[in-house]
Amino acid sequence: MSEILRVENLAKSYDGFQAVKGVSFSVKAGEMKALIGPNGAGKSTCFNMLMGQIKPSGGDVFLDGKRITGLRPRQVWRRGVGRTFQITGTYASMTVIENVQMALISHNHRIFSLLPRARDLYRDEAMALLDRVAMTAQAERPCSVLAYGDLKRLELAIALAHKPRLLLMDEPTAGMAPSARIALMQLTADIVAQEGVSVLFTEHDMDVVFTHAHHIMVLNRGELIADGNAAEVRANPQVQEVYLGGGMLFKEIENA
Amino acid sequence: MGFFFAQLLTGLSNAAGLFLVASGLSLIFGVTRIVNFAHGSFYMLGAYFGVTLMGILPDYLGSHVGFWGSIVLTGVIVGLVGALVEIVVLRPIYRAPELFQLVATFGVILMIQDLALMSWGAEDIMGARAPGLRGVFRIFGEPIPKYDIVLICITPFILIALWWLIAKTRLGILVRAATQDREMVGALGVNQRWLFTGVFALGSALAGWGGALQLPKGGADLLMDMNIIGPLFVVVVIGGMGSLPGAFIASVIISVLNVFGVTYMPQSTLVLMFVVMAIVLIFRPYGLLGKEEVAGEHGQVGAPEAPIRPFGRTGRLAVTGLLAVLALLPLVSDPFLLVLMTDIIIFALFAASLHFILGAGGLTSFGHAAFYGGGAYVAALLVTYAKAPMEIAFIAAPIGAGMLALVVGWFCIRLSGVYLAMLTLAFSQLVWSLAFQWRSVTRGDDGLINIWPSDWLSGQVPYYYFTLVIGAAGILFLRHVIHAPFGYALRAARDSARQAEATGINVKRVQYLAFALAGALAGLAGGLFVFAKGSVFPTELEIGKSFDALIVVFLGGIKTLSGGVVGAAFMATVEDWLTRMEYWRLMLGMLIIAVVILAPEGIVGSARRLGERLGLIKRAEAEE
Fold this sequence. Notes:
The complex is a heterodimer.
Chain A: E1 3-14, E2 17-28, E3 32-36, H1 43-51, E4 58-63, E5 66-67, H2 73-78, E6 81-84, H3 96-107, H4 123-132, H5 148-159, E7 166-170, H6 178-195, E8 198-202, H7 206-212, E9 215-220, E10 223-228, H8 230-235, H9 237-243, H10 250-255
Parallel strand pairs in A: 3-8, 3-9, 6-7, 7-8
Antiparallel strand pairs in A: 1-2, 1-4, 4-5, 9-10
Helix pairs in contact in A: 3-4, 3-5, 5-6
Chain B: H1 2-32, H2 39-61, H3 63-90, H4 98-120, E1 125-126, E2 136-139, E3 142-145, H5 146-168, H6 170-180, H7 182-187, H8 192-213, E4 219-220, H9 224-239, H10 244-264, H11 269-283, H12 313-332, H13 335-360, H14 369-385, H15 390-412, H16 417-437, H17 439-442, E5 448-449, H18 460-483, H19 485-495, H20 497-501, H21 507-533, E6 535-536, H22 543-556, H23 563-578, H24 584-598, H25 602-614
Antiparallel strand pairs in B: 1-4, 2-3, 5-6
Helix pairs in contact in B: 1-5, 1-8, 1-9, 1-10, 2-3, 2-4, 2-8, 2-9, 3-8, 4-22, 4-24, 5-6, 6-8, 9-10, 9-11, 9-16, 10-11, 11-16, 12-18, 13-18, 13-21, 13-22, 13-23, 14-15, 14-16, 14-21, 15-16, 15-21, 18-19, 18-21, 19-21, 22-23, 22-25
């Protein structure tokens, strides 16, 4: 499998504090890869550097072999990277379908168009995307009244609008009920399987991680301490040290 | 050398008063995050109370104790007035967007203006001289008023006292903590309500002292409140909002610059101040000592905005009907009503252009009059100097205003929230000062006159139709743009800038172009205005004009598409009726404050809510 994303020596320091210390990894085409680690390990900083929300202090990011380090989020998006956020950022004053249409309008370079009505543009494509996440029934509802789980699904539909090759999902299931978590990640896994999109996600729910991720990376204090499949990561003594300390199982940590 | 030094000292003594007032404003902003536009009113109250007390106290306490006692007591009284304003007007709206607070404090300005007029009359009052300080010192042979020297000596002590209060006392620690994290301070058991009231009272007292201390150099008049707002906001913007040392440095820079400006460039004293501000902001967008602020601290008021829809059948019928009525109006109405309607349409277009960036864009511009008056001046200048025909000049109005908005927007759109608001205000003052002071071109407050429309449009009725066609087309165009992809992108940028950026939308560019478009449409309204009146004066560029439009948009309802138009019609009618009363500002001020607190969704929003409750309008979405 070919590499879609390669990260080399990515680093970020704030006033002398090194949040991320020279992290290197890659994501292969069509894989679902998880980035886990305790709170404060630097996951979100890492993520924000990939898409350009934060400028790295060192290192490089390559998308399909092309350097994208330091590009702005919208430029990274144009190169085929979609993103969902830990706290959803949908447009509250628009309907569900308009949220998706907005991404399609942007993708088709028609943001500055003054003539057509936005609500008439790309409706069918938007509806098809909503169908993918089973949200068609709610297409005309205002976004502000959606349940949280539905917002998450809508966000996924928006992130898929420009047919991305890579999807970055920051804690996709945070704040959701356990059953909804599994449903959302199953949906994501199906999309990965059908369209060959690669997904890199951070997650706290170890059930989700070990069920769906093909490969898992563990970040601790800004350093990557493991990168492999589920069995390898479980067996890694450093990971056990960080996560288990006294010898608890992943499940127990989750419930603690 | 002596002259130079004397100039410097005069500048420093002027800085004293300015710093006092600015430090109060900065202090209030730092803690409460409220931009108190009524701060100039407290300054004016300080002058009036000072004059009154200086007329009474010296008889009982002797001239020295009486004079200085009056100044001290003035601060206390103004501080109490400030506390009253804070408790009654501001407490209910701390969490509201900054526009609500602006409008509320503007209501306070109007009320204080009329209360001052009632209490002290319309005549300017001369300030009392400071006892024992009437003469001059000779420094390098130049006469320097003794009072100036005293002021220069007092100021550092005030700065140190304030610094000590903030840095060393328990109250100061609480104030600084509240500046950083209000909720945490509240959670730690501090009664932040009274902390806020206390800070607001102190800030007002400082403004009052500023007003009283300048009395021996000037006096008290009813224009003081508005006249100081320009320099005041320039100082706070240059120094960095919330920074006391910043306010001090900026006060000194601006005051010294002003004095030298008066000597060497008497035509451009006002402009100079704003040019300095622009230069500082190019390099330091948050002022000399200001820190970058993350906007979005303000919460929402009322329900989130409902999704917008194009006109349905009813809406289209209503608009067609209204246009038909307006088209038939000249057949039945008297000339006076026609003039009023022309004014209303022009104002509605102006308000709709502000509503576009304010409502759909979420960009609070406090200086929109710059583009309205700017458009009017562009047309008037072309007619006056280039002898341009009316048609050319009229088309140039929106183009010129749009270009002006591109320049101003380049500076302003980099910022957001209250910083954007302050900067647009300062730039509109820059444009105003150009019109006011560049007499050789703009003829200052004599204005540009004899700007009449071409023959085919002259006369009440033809020009009314012209205004109706252009105004309606402009308003409907703006409405269409809101429904177009560009308008959607603008609302997307407002709703979630992060999400917009992460889906390919260049947020700042969208906002920049929207700002320019709104400026151009305001300029179109200005073009209509100048040919309707046949003249234009700097008043069309004043802060008051910008505030009028803001209040109109606010009254109509920010979250509703028709808010600007409905607000303009309402305001024009109410003003027409109110201004016949003697103290109409007081009434209007109270009305505005009442709307802010009681009906924050504006006329259209409140009417819709009422309709929903009565079952007349279908709800956009039933709550689950």
